Design the sequence.
């Protein structure tokens, strides 16, 4: 996945050096070593490392070699100092993440986020967006800053697109919202003031059809991705950080939780629900109204709740009818 320029979507409030986080975090810091007090310009993830950035790590121990220049690790795991020379260890990663990101970026879950628009054919289009002249925008749409729309794409009426890159030959049907805020917060501290800033984007690849009244949340730091030639039916929700491979077919009212990875050539029936942080292999078929709670290996066909191999599911139905339970 290619890097995108974050500041196109989320303007930087102020640039500061790594040492500035001391004044933000105060008594949150357990241990700190700053190898190089560089100017902080971005945020990294383990999937996409960026120069001059912070990498947030939770309780997990990570010994991945960082080859980029000037990355400062912020973590709650004290053992990570074995692997990183530039590191800050804190007692609460969610609160630390919020304080640093809210100080660093403007975003639309916080006061002060600004954009400027032209009224074009009945729709508000940001002056900071980039839309191909061969694409068509319907009535009463809202296209926010940073959005890119490729060639020959059709955006129908009442569509909201923000924090997104849309490829060529994409159709987005009426009343859909793309690039909305992901469902990220500290489960123990709830409320609108404690939302984890979602500073990633949505990337919809070429030749995708998106039905009416769909919602696609942007990534927390990187992408929510929909692969080429995918067909998404009406009223489908796709959570933040989800990756959907090429040639997917997803029927109406499916709900996909955050950080789900779905392979290529997957077919999903209507009203299927997915738990978060699971992986679905290539060429999987999931029957309608299934509840997917764990990983599914490639070339499987599953059904039921929890979703299991469809042959076993049918046997269970026969047993239930035979024995009356």
Sequence:
């Amino acid at each position: 996945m290619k890097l995108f320029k974050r500041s196109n979507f989320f303007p930087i409030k102020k640039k500061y050096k790594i040492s500035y986080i001391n004044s933000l975090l105060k008594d949150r810091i357990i241990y700190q070593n700053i190898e190089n007090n560089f100017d902080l310009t971005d945020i990294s993830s383990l999937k996409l490392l960026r120069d001059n950035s912070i990498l947030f790590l939770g309780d997990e121990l990570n010994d991945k070699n960082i080859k980029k220049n000037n990355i400062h690790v912020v973590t709650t795991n004290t053992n990570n100092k074995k692997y990183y020379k530039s590191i800050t260890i804190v007692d609460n990663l969610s609160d630390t993440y919020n304080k640093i990101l809210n100080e660093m970026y403007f975003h639309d879950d916080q006061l002060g986020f600004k954009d400027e628009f032209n009224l074009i054919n009945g729709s508000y289009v940001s002056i900071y967006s980039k839309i191909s002249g061969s694409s068509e925008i319907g009535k009463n749409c809202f296209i926010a800053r940073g959005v890119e729309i490729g060639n020959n794409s059709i955006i129908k009426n009442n569509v909201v697109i923000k924090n997104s890159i849309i490829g060529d030959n994409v159709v987005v049907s009426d009343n859909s919202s793309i690039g909305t805020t992901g469902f990220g917060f500290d489960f123990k501290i709830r409320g609108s003031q404690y939302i984890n800033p979602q500073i990633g984007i949505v990337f919809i690849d070429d030749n995708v059809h998106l039905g009416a009244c769909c919602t696609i949340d942007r990534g927390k730091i990187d992408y929510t991705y929909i692969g080429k030639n995918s067909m998404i039916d009406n009223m489908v929700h796709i959570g933040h950080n989800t990756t959907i491979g090429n040639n997917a077919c997803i029927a109406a009212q499916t709900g996909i939780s955050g950080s789900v990875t779905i392979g290529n050539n997957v077919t999903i029936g209507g009203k299927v629900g997915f738990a978060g942080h699971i992986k679905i292999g290539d060429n999987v078929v999931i029957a309608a109204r299934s509840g997917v709670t764990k990983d599914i290996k490639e070339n499987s066909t599953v059904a039921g709740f929890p979703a299991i191999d469809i042959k076993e599911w049918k046997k269970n139905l026969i047993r239930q009818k035979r024995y009356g339970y």
User: Anything to note?
Assistant: The two ends are 49 Å apart (CA to CA). The CA atoms of residues 131 and 258 lie 28 Å apart. The domain at 6-104 is CATH 3.40.1390.10 (Udp-n-acetylmuramoylalanyl-d-glutamate--2,6- Diaminopimelate Ligase; Chain: A, domain 1). Helices lie at 21-25, 93-104, 310-323.
